[in-house]
Amino acid sequence: MNILPINKIILASFAFALTHWKKIAEISILPVAISLPLLMILPQMLELMEMVFQGGDLSEVILPDNTPIYLLFFLYGYIMLSVNMYRLVVLGEQSVVALSPIFNIRQIFRFIGLTLFIGFVTTVPVMLTGIGFLQLIIYFLIMPITLNFINIATNQPSKYKWQLSFASQTNLFLLQAIIPALIGMIFTALFNAVGLPEAFGWGVKIILFYWSLVNLALCYQLIQKANTSA
After folding, report:
1. Positive or negative torsion for Cα 175, 181, 184, 187
2. Model pTM?
3. Distance between CA 81 and CA 174 in Å, rounded?
């Protein structure tokens, strides 16, 4: 049984964004402000990454000053925004407060731990085997575990057995991985073809980031509802 209809979830996510855009903007102010130091040096960081990927001499790679601190600020801002977005979708506007930092240390470390776990299991096998497609296969297999981001945001215990049907898990994978990636590639190619500045591409990526957060939370709600009524 498929409990995650793609069309309805996409429409619901856009409807949510249209009806809650003001609150979304409010809870984005502080995370964006905290992330600004890293965002300001992002072009330089991308140039260094390109140099490394092209096989450049690592001894010539010099990171900008205070980069580790900026990365920590960015990570904290990312966690703060993600947690507040998940809470906004699942618990409503009364559950989030604009310009309010997150001080729940356990919540922060749980979020970081899950992020590192997903990154580890999806990248290390690819690094060991050199098979890029393996990352998509592993990501599909562990996709239900990503629902724990909402459990963390709402201070619920983590679950590792979600009992999703193959169709539901496939749709969750499509909504979280394939569809955003395809949309991003299409718009990037389109913007490059017409000669638009790179800022337009980053704008699409930001929208897709918010959209993915809302989609995951909506999927979580549908799954919890189905499990409750089962």
Report:
1. negative
2. 0.92
3. 23
